[in-house]
Write a structure and sequence with these properties.
Two copies of one chain form a homodimer.
Chain A lengths: L1 H16 L2 E5 L7 H10 L4 E7 L18 E4 L6 E5 L3 H13 L5 E8 L6 H4 L1 H11 L4 E6 L9 H16 L7 E6 L7 E4 L5 E11 L5 E11 L7 H6 L2 E6 L7 H10 L3
Parallel strand pairs in A: 1-2, 1-5, 2-4, 5-6, 6-7, 8-11
Antiparallel strand pairs in A: 3-4, 7-11, 9-10
Helix pairs in contact in A: 2-6, 3-5
C-alpha cells in the first residue's frame, strides 16, 4: 500500500516535471499535419492539443472580438489531451493558456501546415500567427509547414525534421521569445537545415470574377507567387535547393532604419 | 466647341495627374473615423474609398480564401468614389488595386481607427494590416488610430494631425514601402508628433466564462493591457505624454539577432 502510494507520487511528480508542449494549427484538428506533429513529439513531454474546429488558413493574426468562443474536449490522438475551439489559431493559444493549461506551456508548436509559409506568407499564415502569439507571451514557439498542399502527402521525412528541431530548441533555452518559421521541402531528398532570412516576395493578385445564379458578380482571390529576392540566404532559396528553411521571426515590427531616416528628414 | 474640348482634355489630364489616395479601415465604411479621414485629405488628390461592409476589428492580416467576395459601389462621401466589400481590410486593399483602380494608388490611408493601435496592437489590428498590405505592394501607407473608442469622439484635432502627416509623406517620397503606425491622443491638448519604436506590451488575457440558455459554456475574450517597456522612445510613452506617436513599421519579420545566434549555436 505504501509502495503503491510512493509509486503514485513519483508518477505524479514525473507528470508535473514533464515539459508541457502545446500544439495547434490552422488547417483544423482533423488534418493529417497536426497528427504528424503530435506523433513526432509525443515522447518529449506532456502534449496538449488545442486546435480550430474548422479550416482557418489565411487568418493571419485574427482574434475573435465580436463573438463568444466555444471549446470541446475530444479523444483523437491516442491518449493525448485534445480540444477544439470555434476560434482562430491565435484564439486557440489564448484559450489554451487561460482556460485549459492555466499556465504557460514550455513550448508551443504549430502545424504541420499543408502548404508553404515561407517569405511573405508568414504574415498571412494562421500557423505562424499562433506561434507568434505564444512568442509574445514568452513561450518559445515553432511553426512548421510542408511544401505540399496535399492531405495525402508523405509526412515521414517531415516528422524526423520536426523531432530534430524541437529537441534542439528544448535542450538549449536560447530566448523565451524564440520564434521559428520552419518550412520543409516535399519528398525525401532533404539536403539539410538552413537558417535563413525572409525573402522579399509577394503575390500578384488577380481576382477571378464570376456571376452567381442571380447574375450578380462575386470574386475569388487568386494570385501568382513572385519572388523578388535573389540572395542566397533566403528561405525561398533554401527550399528551392531542397533544404529545410528556418527563419527566426520577431514581433517588434519597428522599422529602425526608416525611424532614423524620419528623424532626420523632418517630414512633419 | 474647340475651347470646350480643350477644357475637357485639360480637366481629364488634371484628373489623371492627381495622386490617387486609397482609403480603407477596419471599423467599416459607416464609422465616423473613415469619414474624418476622407474629409482630412479630400483636397490632396483623387480619393477612393474601399472599406469593409461590417466591423473587422482584430482581423489582423486575415485574407478570405474559402469564400468568394462581394463588392458594392456607394455614394456616401459627397462626390468621393466609394465601395464596400464583404472582405477583410486586407481583402479591401487587394480588391481596390486589382478590380477598382486597376493600378496601384499613390498612397494608402487606413482608419481613423476608433481605439488604440500602439505597441503590440499593430499585430492584431485590421487597420494596420490593410496599410501593411499596401506597403508590401510598394504603396506608401499610413494607419491612423485614435485613443478613444467612442464613435462620438471629437475628431477635429485628429483631422489636422492626419492632414499634416499625409502632406509630409506625399511631398517627399522617402521609400515606396514606407509604412507608418500613427496613434493620436484623445482631446485637443496635443503636444506634438514623436517618431517612436513599438513598445513591448501585451494583453493579459482572461476569458469571461458564461453559460448559454442551454447551460453550455461559452467564452468572451477580455484582457488587461500591460506595458513592460519603460523606455522613453516608445509609442506608449509618447501617447501617455500627449504626443502623437509615429512608428515606422516593416514587413520583414526576420529576427536578425536571433539568426546570428542560431547560426553560432548549432542547435540542429
Amino acid at each position: 500500500m505504501v509502495k503503491k502510494a510512493i509509486a503514485k507520487k513519483a508518477t505524479e511528480k514525473k507528470v508535473k516535471e514533464q515539459p508541457i508542449i502545446l500544439i495547434t494549427n490552422d488547417d483544423d484538428i482533423t488534418s493529417p499535419g497536426i497528427r504528424a506533429l503530435v506523433d513526432a513529439v509525443r515522447d518529449f513531454g506532456r502534449v496538449v492539443v488545442v486546435a480550430p474546429d474548422k479550416p482557418q488558413s489565411g487568418m493571419g493574426h485574427a482574434i475573435t472580438i465580436g463573438f463568444p468562443l466555444r471549446m470541446r474536449k475530444l479523444d483523437m490522438f491516442d491518449g493525448i489531451e485534445s480540444w477544439t475551439t470555434s476560434g482562430t489559431p491565435v484564439d486557440c493559444v489564448k484559450l489554451a493558456v487561460d482556460k485549459i493549461l492555466h499556465r504557460k506551456p514550455d513550448i508551443c508548436l504549430s502545424g504541420i501546415n499543408h502548404g508553404a509559409n515561407h517569405s511573405i506568407n508568414v504574415i498571412y499564415s494562421g500557423t505562424m500567427s499562433a506561434a507568434m502569439e505564444a512568442s509574445i507571451e514568452g513561450i518559445p514557439s515553432i511553426g512548421f509547414s510542408m511544401m505540399d498542399y496535399s492531405y495525402e502527402a508523405d509526412l515521414s521525412a517531415a516528422k524526423q525534421i520536426v523531432a530534430k528541431i524541437v529537441q534542439g530548441v528544448m535542450k538549449k533555452k536560447i530566448d523565451k521569445h524564440l520564434l521559428l518559421n520552419v518550412n520543409i521541402p516535399a519528398g525525401k531528398n532533404i539536403k539539410g537545415i538552413k537558417i535563413c532570412k525572409q525573402a522579399y516576395a509577394k503575390y500578384e493578385e488577380e481576382f477571378s470574377e464570376r456571376l452567381d445564379p442571380h447574375k450578380k458578380k462575386y470574386y475569388w482571390l487568386t494570385g501568382e507567387f513572385k519572388n523578388f529576392d535573389k540572395s542566397k540566404d533566403t528561405d525561398v532559396w533554401a527550399l528551392e535547393n531542397n533544404y529545410v528553411s528556418v527563419v527566426p521571426v520577431q514581433f517588434d515590427l519597428t522599422n529602425y532604419k526608416l525611424k532614423a531616416l524620419l528623424e532626420k528628414s523632418k517630414l512633419f
